[in-house]
Write a structure and sequence with these properties.
The protein is of the alpha+beta class. The protein has one helix at residues 39-52, and strands at residues 4-10, 19-25, 30-36. Strand 1 (4-10) and strand 2 form a beta hairpin.
Length: 58
């Protein structure tokens, strides 16, 4: 099983796209990253990326 790291960073409340997320592989290489309006939106985006890359098939 490969290791992955999810980084979440919160901005100021009320800021548009206040959440930044980044998904890295075990070597620390960035797989995907983006901004989101809410924590729920950030996690939904991570779910989509992990599904698209087949990471949740393990």
């Amino acid at each position: 099983m490969d290791d992955y790291r999810l980084h979440l960073q919160a901005g100021e409340p009320g800021d548009e796209d206040a959440w930044f997320w980044r998904l890295d592989d075990a070597a620390g290489l960035q797989i995907a990253a983006s901004w989101a309006a809410s924590l729920a939106d950030a996690l939904d985006a991570v779910k989509r990326v992990s599904t698209d890359l087949g990471l949740d098939d393990a």
